[in-house]
Structures are given as structure tokens and as C-alpha cells.
């Protein structure tokens, strides 16, 4: 069935899917720029330069608060229900999010537990008391980032590309875009994490497949990872001992830039694949 967008602009009926996706991101950025430019000047930040947390939160918050508006507009323009992006607000969604949240946080616990047993990291016992005060804020942050990024990348972007290129080709491309866009916030600091971020995107695409094209499981999994890592960082709980190569634990203390982080993602993918079978 032709969409409102295609009827209003016949050129786009035959346009490549990448052009339609590009229009979506261009509109999102265009709406954000009047907010972002004054913020960036006030915070003394330039794109593709590493961000401090005090700089990153206002910029990311302003961008992500606009995401639902742009997605609703895209759904209206395409004459499809918002639920097409993979969020149906019901009990099944709550169950899937809870499962993903548990899998994400337990998986991180095992990852850092193994590294503790191997003597690669130590825990700062004096900072445990700080953990309680950060858990609720980091959980809220994880759920918000998780649902926003899943709607954009595994909901809208993957869904659009899949119409033209099939599931796995679209998963590869959407995960690559997901990884590359992280360079905007951290610049060259994030280059070592690009393979891990791409693999993370692929795992989240698999989670969507396992959840019958719904985003609950991917949302929960994503939220669990953000929640776990943000809690550890905010409470400053772990210290790398330097007893093994950074290529194992993660370059510049970034788990996705190390072999253990990649193995963790592959193991998670294996568990999801087993469930799907």
C-alpha cells in the first residue's frame, strides 16, 4: 500500500531506501541543531572530540528527547502505526524487558567475576557504599538510552532497510551505522571499540529476532549493559591490575575494545541463538 510520503512525493516511491533513511536522520539532526549549537558553545565541545560526562549528558539528553517526536512523525508520514517499530505496550513487553535486563546484568557480573578470579581486576571495597546511591539513577538512564537507541536502530532503521535488503544484510549495515555514530561523542577514543559496538548491534538485532520482531528483549539487554557499566563507573568500583594485556581486558579500560568483551558478546549471542532454536 502506498504511504502518505510516497503519494505526496512520487520521487520517493522509487528512491533507494538509503535516501529515505537519510531524510529521517537529516530531519532529526536539523531539529536538534538549534538546541545543540548553543549547548556545544556553552559546554566548549566540538563534534568528534572526546566528551566529559558533564558535557555529554545535556547533549545526548536533548538529542534523545527529540527522538520519539521524529519517530512519531515518520510513522505518520509513512501511514503506519508506531507499534510497527517493535514496541507494543503490553504485559509481554514488560516480561521481555525484564528478561533482557536480567540477562544483561547477570552477564556483566559473570564477565567481571571471571576477570576477578583471573586476577585481572580488583574491587575497591571502600567504594561499595557509593553503589547504593547510583543504582536507581543508572537504571533509569539505562532504560531511557536502551529504549531510544533500540527504537532508532533496531526499530526504525533495521525495519526500513529490511524491506529492501533482507534481514541479515540490514542487520550488518544498521549495526555498522550504530557503531560509527558513536564516534560523534568520543571521536578517535572510540575507534578501538568499533568492532565491539558493531558486534553489540548484531547481538541486539538477534535479540529482536528472538523476540518475534519486538524490541522488549533488545531494550532490556541494552539497558542492562548500560545500567551495569554506568553503575560500575559512577561508583568507581573496579581497578585493572595490569597483570595481562589490554587486548584482553579492553584498550583504555573499555571492555568492548578487548577480547573478553567480544567473547562476552559472542556468548550472549550463542545463548540467544539457542533460545531461538
Describe the protein:
The protein has 277 residues and is mostly helical. It folds into two domains: 1-80, no CATH class; 87-276, no CATH class. Helix content is 74%, strand content 2%. It is built from twelve helices and two strands. The protein has helices at residues 4-8, 10-13, 17-43, 53-77, 91-117, 128-165, 167-181, 183-186, 194-210, 216-235, 246-249, 259-276, and strands spanning 121-123, 238-240. It has a two-stranded antiparallel ribbon with strand order 1-2. Helix 5 runs antiparallel to helix 12 and helix 6 packs across helix 7 (167-181). It is globular.
* Biggest sheet statistics: 2 strands, antiparallel
| SSE topology string | HHHHHEHHHHHEHH
Indicate the low-confidence ranges by residue numbers. 1-8
User: Would you tell me the overall average pLDDT?
Assistant: 89
Shape: globular
Structural class: mainly alpha
Q: How large is the count of helical segments?
A: 12
Please compute the radius of gyration using only Cα atoms. 19 Å
State the distance separating the first and last CA atoms: 33 Å
Percent range of helical residues: over 70%
Number of domains: 2
Summarize the SSE layout with pairings:
Blueprint: H1 4-8, H2 10-13, H3 17-43, H4 53-77, H5 91-117, E1 121-123, H6 128-165, H7 167-181, H8 183-186, H9 194-210, H10 216-235, E2 238-240, H11 246-249, H12 259-276
Antiparallel strand pairs: 1-2
Helix pairs in contact: 3-4, 4-6, 5-10, 5-12, 6-7, 6-9, 6-10, 7-9, 9-10, 9-12
Amino acid at each position: 500500500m502506498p504511504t502518505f510520503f510516497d503519494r505526496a512525493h512520487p520521487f520517493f516511491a522509487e528512491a533507494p531506501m538509503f535516501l529515505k533513511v537519510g531524510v529521517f536522520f537529516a530531519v532529526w539532526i536539523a531539529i536538534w541543531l538549534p538546541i545543540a549549537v548553543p549547548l556545544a558553545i556553552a559546554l566548549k565541545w566540538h563534534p568528534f572530540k572526546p566528551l566529559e560526562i558533564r558535557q555529554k549528558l545535556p547533549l545526548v539528553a536533548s538529542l534523545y528527547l527529540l527522538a520519539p517526536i521524529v519517530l512519531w512523525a515518520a510513522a505518520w508520514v509513512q501511514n503506519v502505526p508506531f507499534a510497527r517499530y517493535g514496541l507494543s505496550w503490553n504485559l509481554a513487553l514488560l516480561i521481555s524487558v525484564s528478561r533482557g535486563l536480567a540477562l544483561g546484568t547477570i552477564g556483566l557480573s559473570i564477565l567481571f567475576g571471571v576477570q576477578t578470579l583471573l586476577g585481572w581486576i580488583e574491587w575497591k571495597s571502600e567504594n561499595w557504599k557509593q553503589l547504593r546511591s547510583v543504582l536507581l539513577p543508572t537504571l533509569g538512564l539505562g532504560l531511557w538510552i536502551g529504549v531510544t537507541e533500540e527504537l532508532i536502530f533496531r526499530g526504525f532503521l533495521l525495519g526500513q532497510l529490511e524491506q529492501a535488503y533482507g534481514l541479515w544484510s540490514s542487520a550488518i549495515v544498521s549495526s555498522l551505522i550504530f557503531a560509527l555514530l558513536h564516534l560523534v561523542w568520543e571521536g578517535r577514543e572510540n575507534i578501538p571499540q568499533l568492532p565491539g559496538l558493531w558486534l553489540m548491534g548484531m547481538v541486539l538485532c538477534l535479540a529482536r529476532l528472538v523476540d518475534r520482531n519486538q524490541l522488549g528483549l533488545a531494550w532490556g539487554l541494552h539497558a542492562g549493559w548500560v545500567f551495569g557499566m554506568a553503575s560500575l563507573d559512577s561508583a568507581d568500583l573496579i581497578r585493572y591490575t595490569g597483570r595481562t594485556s589490554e587486548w584482553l581486558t579492553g584498550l583504555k579500560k573499555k571492555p568492548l575494545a578487548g577480547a573478553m568483551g567480544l567473547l562476552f558478546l559472542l556468548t550472549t549471542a550463542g545463548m540467544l541463538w539457542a533460545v531461538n532454536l
